[in-house]
Write a structure and sequence with these properties.
By secondary structure, the chain is α+β, with helices and mostly antiparallel strands. The chain has one domain. The protein is about 50% helix and about 20% strand. It contains two helices and three strands. Strand 1 and strand 2 form a beta hairpin.
Length: about 90
Amino acid sequence: MAQLTLTAVYMKVREGYVAFVEELPGTNTQGDTLEEARANLSEAVTMVLDANRELSEQALEGARHSGSSDPACCVKRTDLIRHLERHGM
């Protein structure tokens, strides 16, 4: 399996910590402690990657049925947003 290197950014704020991954839009979270923010960010990364994988699979399946050679044409940004909202992101 290929290894993916991501940049996690943690910032101390008055309420605790906020965290996000630079290379993965939509992957952001917070925590009262740095440890909690790290755990939450790990979960957020997993959720966003799973959502992206699912949408890619749907796009490929849709392309097979529509005859399109471009799978990207089958996934809309609004579909991704709805999917992420459904999964609490």
